[in-house]
Amino acid sequence: MTRARQDDDSSKPESRNRRNLLLCGTTLTAAYLLCALGTTSLAQQTTGTPGSPSATTTIDGKYLPPPPPKFGGEINLGASQSKPYWPAQVVPPKGAPNVLLIMTDDQGYGVSGTFGGVIPTPAMDRIANAGLRYTQFHSTALCSPTRAALITGRNHHSVGFGVITEMSTGYPGYDSVIGPESATIGTILRENGYTTAWIGKNHNTPSYQLSLAGPFDQWPNGMGFDHFYGFMGGETDQWTPFLFRDQTQVFPWVGRPGYNLTTDMADDAINYMRGLNNAAPDKPFFIYYVPGGSHAPHQPTPESIKKISDMHLFDQGWEKLRETIFANQKRLGVIPANTQLTPWPDGQPEYGGAKLQKWDTLSPDEKKLFIRQADVFAAYTAYTDHEIGRVIQEVEDQGKLDNTLIIYISGDNGNSAEGSILGTPNEMAAIQGVNIPVAEQLKFYDVWGSAQTTPHFAVAWTWAFDTPFKWTKQVASHFGGTRQGMAISWPGHINEVGGIRTQFHHMIDIVPTILEATGIPAPVMVNGVAQKPIEGVSMSYTFDKANANAPSTRSTQYFEMVGNRAIYHDGWLAATTPPEPPWDLGFGKFPDVVNGYTWELYNLAEDYSENNDLAAKMPDRLRDMKELFLVTAQKYNVFPLDNSFTARAVTPRPSATAGRTLFTYSGESSGLPYSSAPDIAGKSYSITAEVEIPQGGAEGMINTLGGRGGGHGLYLLKGKPVFVYNFFNVERFRWESPAALAPGKHTIVFDFKYDGPGFGKGGTGVLSVDGKEVASRTIPHTIPFVETIYETFDVGVDTRTGVDDKDYQPPFRFTGKIDKLTVKLVPMKAAEEKLHQQKVQETINKAQ
Question: What is the pLDDT at residue 463?
Answer without folding.
Answer: 97
